[in-house]
Amino acid sequence: MPASLPATIPACHCELAMPSQEKPSATQYDPTFLHARREAIVIFFVWLTCMVWSVSYCYLNGYLDNDASEFDAQSFSITLGMPTWVFWGIAVPWLLANVATTWFCFAFMQDDDLGTSPEELEAQRQAAEHARRAEETAR
Amino acid sequence: LNLTPVPIPVLLAAGSNAALVTFLVYTAAVLGLAAMSNRLLKHKSFVSEYFLGSRGLGMWAFALTFAATSASGGSFTGFPAKIYSHGWILGLWIASYMVVPLCAMGLLGKRLNQVARTAGAITVPDVLRDRFESKTFGLVAVTLIVFFMSFNLVAQFKAGSLILQILLADVTIYQQAAQWLGGITHDIEWLRNIDPGYLLCLVGFGVAVIVYTTYGGFHAVVWTDVMQGVVMVLGVLIMLPLALSLVGGLDFATRQMAEMIPPRTGTATLRWTEPPTSSTRPINAGDWLVDPQPGDELPRLFKVLKPVKLTPGQREVERVAVLEILTPGDRHTVLQDTGQGKIRRELQVVAAQIPPPAAADSAFDGRGVYVTGPGPHPASHDGFLPLSLAVSFFFMWAISGAGQPSSMVRLMAFKDSQTLRRAIFTVAMYYSLIYFPLVLIFCCSRVLMPGMDQEADSIMPTMAVYLTSRTGVPWLAGLLIAAPFAAVMSTVDSFLLMTSSALVRDIYQRNMNPHASVRTIKYLSYLATLLVGVVAAIGAINPPEFLQDIIVYVGSGLSACFLAPMVFAIYWPRSNKAGCLAGMLAGFAAHLAMYVGGIFAHGSFFRPYRVLDFDPIIIGLAVSFCTTYLVTRITPPPPEHLVRKYFFKHP
Fold first, then answer.
1. Which of B127, B365, B471, B487 is 20 to 30 A removed from B209 (C-alpha atoms)?
2. Of chain B residues 174-213, which have a CB less than 8 A from chain A?
């Protein structure tokens, strides 16, 4: 389940310009907005980590030199059936990315109220009206 | 995804009409789902239900519609073809899918859903229009969506029809129907040059998709996506163990690939040992030719690439297009394996002109390129995936995926944030079960079926039949080859609905007739979906050639236009109409400029100019983000009531 977190975070990134108003305090912001923004920042860093790991590892260990004149297939390194650079540069980070995704979904991301749309409100109103009429008819 | 129907006896080999049965069962199932979802339309708000499923998608529906829509036909046709052609480097090409669910769903999902509910928005242009209270912004967004989607729909219709044509190539009823249609179209001027088989498949594919999308709306699209998503993952999970067991283990396959030398194309002069007569079998594409070498146990081996017309009495034929297989292991496989096509021993190879590829280094024979980066590329010295492109693809799939309006619509449709959390996890597992296993399967195919380099687009159905027929389960071929078909269908229906929603909701209802009755909107929605589908299908009768290039251009272009404005609109209270609109237009212009630059630099729109070798998506996104930020900074802040509405707590 998502960890319990404070409803707000400092407003250092939330510069809000409202000419006729003083700056709002962090507690005035919608908690769903603050949680979503914090989660987006974490996702960005997970993506960046995966990119740096995969691309740099594969480039340093899996790319042939431009001036290579031969390739030694006999000494080519294989791990679990795949080239070793694929194993450490793609398979392992993919596995860890799945672990990070699991942590994100079940331990970090907040369950927030997403609000009610106008058509949902209208549907609720109609349902209530329908129930009221049904009750009146029953009487 | 440059699909070319190849006359491979794919389904004949399976000994059944598996493809035809699959297609018919499939069509019946999607039409049934459309009928069920049409019933929902009678009980709920029509526009919200037809275009957005009443914001009520549960976990499985949301996860699988998101995954299936993102996985277009390219995932099961172009991607396997690329693995076959370039080897293990495709693992890095697709590696960013490890974070695609997190990025494409998590970056915007929760907040976009909340903003759309607050605004009462049904479509992506709706969100931008209401967030900034700007009709202009909404109309610009609609224009861009219709512009890009029109190209994409035509391309996807073509892809679907070509896949169907490949699948049905050897079904007798299909051949007879195509012949009958050819007799009719022969007398029609503008249809005379169109392959009747392609036309037939376009009609079959088009009618099925247009009918179920028009009739059922969003829920039909979602439910068929769920079914198609299940078919896709089942296809991969069945193929993987079959491929590994037939090849003799992944370790063996990789060792074989390490020894491989890329085959080379050229021409050969052939001579019949006996003068050919009118009953002599002609030289067909796919025929094998051997040229014994003195002192060498293995002969030279060639595959004919284009059929040659037979002239009775003429013993020698010059300039026959051939592919020479250079890897000894591959030659051994072909010579031993009768399933690889008939070896034409009655033909002698008199001479062969096989020039080295343009990009080849004379000191290097190419051994090892299938197990290392940057992977083989016949026309580029930098190889298939140089470092700059490897970085670009991390942007392309993960970041660009978040900027697709078709994905954004789905992010507006889930029920609650718990659904989002569970769906991200589900899609992450789903992609892990599809994309990395596809790399393994089609690396095995390189070893199992040498010499398919020139017809790599049909590797998926060919491999499906190869695996199932050799493991004694030919009936499974129908299910396996349904996967690419399902992938295209699930993408087309989403794009179709999105375009019609842009016309009905964003243009008609919001700008021309805000007080239109539900009945009017309902019939206009049906009509728009039908018309958009029919127009796209007509466009696909004679579609442009560069199918995959169009899909890439549209995908990256939409992201360059929509990602930055949407990110700023929902996460930055200071963002305003001027900044986001400027960012949208600047992203469009910068991305387009790279492609127009390609005309001057390389002579083709679809070979874009690459700044520092990076893909245009990176330039488009960078320009769009910078422009949005800078223009916002130098223009007045947004109205207070908008900031309070979208960013503040409400009592």
1. B127
2. none
Identify the pLDDT of residue B4: 38
Q: Cα(B125)–Cα(B138) distance, rounded to whole angstroms?
A: 5
A60 touches chain B (CB under 8 A): no
Quick one: how far is CA B21 from the chain centroid? 24
With beta carbons less than 8 A apart as the criterion, state whether B94 and B441 touch: no
Q: In which order are the strands placed within the sheet that holds B288-291?
A: B288-291, B300-304, B316-325, B264-272, B347-353
> Do the Cβ atoms of B246 and B446 come closer than 8 Å?
no
Average per-residue pLDDT in chain B?
84
Angstroms from B640 CA to nearest CA on chain A: 6
Give how far Cα B146 sits from Cα of A79, B121, B495, Å: 48, 18, 10
The secondary structure of B281-319 as a DSSP string is: PPB-TT-EEEE--TT-SSPEEEEE-S-B---TT--EEEE
Instruction: Give me the DSSP letters along chain A.
Output: -PPP--S---GGG-----TTSPPPPGGGB-HHHHHHHHHHHHHHHHHHHHHHHHHHHHHHHHBPPTT-----STT--EETTEEHHHIIIIIHHHHHHHHHHHHIIIIIS--------HHHHHHHHHHHHHHHHHHHHH-
Residue pair B553/B151 in contact (Cβ under 8 Å)? The answer is: yes
Q: Both tokens of residue B156?
A: 């996807």
Q: Which conformational region is residue B238 in: left (phi greater than 0), alpha (psi within -120 to 50 degrees), or beta?
A: alpha
Backbone angles phi, psi at B314, to 5 degrees: -85, 110
Distance from C-alpha of B299 to C-alpha of B331, rounded to nearest angstrom: 8
Distance in angstroms (rounded) separating the CA atoms of residues B15 and B9: 10
Backbone angles phi, psi at B373, to 5 degrees: -90, 160
Pairing status of strand A82-83 against strand A78-79 = antiparallel
Nearest CB to A43; choose among B107, B259, B390: B107
With CB atoms and an 8 Å threshold, state whether B102 touches A58.
Answer: no
A48 in contact with chain B, both atoms CB, cutoff 8 A:
no
Model confidence, pTM:
0.84
Q: Which residue do the tokens 């969003």 mark?
A: B218
For residue range B288-329, list pLDDT tens digits in order: 888 888 877 788 899 988 888 777 777 888 888 999 988 888
Do residue B432 and residue A123 have CB atoms under 8 angstroms apart? no
| pLDDT of A17 | 47
Average confidence (pLDDT) over B161-180: 81
Helix H or strand E segment including B544: none
CA–CA distances in Å: residue B221 to residues B30, B121, B209, B486: 9, 19, 9, 12
Q: Where are the beta strands (DSSP E) in B562-646?
A: none
Two tokens, residue B465: 């039949």
Whole-angstrom distance between the N-terminal and C-terminal Cα of chain B?
53
Please identify which residue in the block is written with the tokens 């992977």.
Answer: B375
Complex ipTM > 0.90? no
Question: Any idea which of A1-5, B130-134, B571-575 has the lowest mean pLDDT?
Answer: A1-5
What is the rounded CA–CA span in Å between residue B528 and residue B507? 12
A 80-99 → B contacts, CB under 8 A: 80-83, 85-86, 89-91, 93-94, 97-98
A100 in contact with B at a CB cutoff of 8 Å? Answer: yes
Give yes or no for a contact between B301 and B288, defined as CB atoms under 8 angstroms apart.
yes
Q: Token pair of B327, please?
A: 């890897």
pLDDT (tens digit per residue) in B35-68: 777 776 666 666 666 666 667 778 888 888 888 7
Select from A31, A63, A105 the Cβ nearest to the Cβ of B373. Answer: A63
Question: Quick one: DSSP state of residue B76?
Answer: G
Q: Is B461 exposed, middle or buried (0-12, 13-18, 19+ CB in 10 A)?
A: buried
